[in-house]
Amino acid sequence: MLFEFDDLANQKAKLKVLGVGGGGGNAINRMMKSGLIGVDFIAINTDAQDLDNNLAPMKIQIGKDLTRGLGAGAVKEVGRMAMEADRHSALNAINGADMVFITAGMGGGTGTGASPLIAKLAKEQGCLTVAIVTKPFHFEGPKRMQRAEEGIRELRENVDTLIVIPNQRLLNIVDRKTSIRQAFQTADSVLYQATRGISDLINRHGIINLDFADIKTIMNNMGEAIMGTGLATGEERAVLAAQQAISSPLLNDMNIRGASGLLINVTGGEDLNLFEVDEACKIITEEAGNEADIIIGAVIDENLTDEIMITVIATGFGKENSDHFRNSESILNPMKQELFAEEISAGKEIESFEIKSGSDNGSTLNIAFEEEKSFIDDIKDMNDKNIPAILRKMMNR
């Protein structure tokens, strides 16, 4: 008797990571340099130069006629219109995906304006849609923070799960001597860890394997989510990593109790054993309580030697908890600060990351905290006939 089998490769879940805007593009570069496997990378931007320097194999420039490849100028509406103009390009990129990760820095023009529309398109295609985004540092100004909050509200309406990383919280896990470049690289690293924490459970072989349906159970239509990570070595590494993950500064001092879904990824080298997985998960599940649906994956990464890395993603919080998560600005326990500062100062997450620049004389970091006014002023310098009609309307408001 002859049996026919489909190509197993074609039966695997198709995961795509869409980096939107400058912040999303930087996150993609970080993921690719770190060797994230089993996902397709797509960079989407209005800034042609930034897009050209991106490492993603697939790049989509949106709003060519609208912005002339010069970016959205921190105008959220321009980012949205640019995406609207090239929505078919995004649809083609999303086509065939089972799961779509959208990563962006909220507060600018392209990431803030385009991401909600991309999420809506992905959901309409039946993709499990997860957005992992950052909120600005306080020093970037209240105007940028206001735009970020608006973009996050719009994004929340169009995704299955939303993970928001407040950049300001990263100041609690870095040393005071950390450079501004390293601070932004740390933000990229957190976006990478969140994406990897989910994708590795699907793509990597492990002691405890999960399938895409398991992930979907925890993340489908779950709304707000929070994430914590832990990394430890030595005899008590599993316990320490678990404790770090559930007391992570990224949790915004919020307890994981109250979540309706919990995703736990325990990653270690070839020496990772089942007893360590049991120890770690016992600590986390006891903290979560009895109400959460919990799925656990244990993954082998040959590059980890004597280290265990744990990622906890808690999903499905009620509105009360979600509001607390977004508004909390409380101070961390000094011991927690010290634990995470040691990790960053040791370079565990950022030592291999390089910022690309157009110069051969060393890398430079250009951070634009521009406001809408500067963009409109630039437009006014153009000949009237060269200004798109929609922008003329914005100028005349």
Task: Report on this structure.
It is a single chain. The protein has 397 residues and is α/β, with parallel strands linked by helices. An eleven-stranded mixed β-sheet has the order 3-2-1-4-5-6-8-11-9-10-7, with helices on both faces. Strand 4, helix 7 and strand 5 form a beta-alpha-beta unit. Helix 5 packs across helix 7. It is globular and about 60 Å long. The C terminus is likely disordered.
What's a concise summary of this model?
Helix content is 42%, strand content 19%. It has 397 residues and is an alpha/beta fold.
CATH topology of the domain at 12-203: Rossmann fold
Q: Give me the CATH architecture of the domain at 12-203, please.
A: 3-Layer(aba) Sandwich
- Strand tally, please? 11
CA radius of gyration is 21 Å
Quaternary status: single chain
Structural class: alpha/beta
CATH class of the domain at 12-203: Alpha Beta
List keywords for this structure.
397 residues; Rossmann fold; disordered C terminus; 16 helices; globular
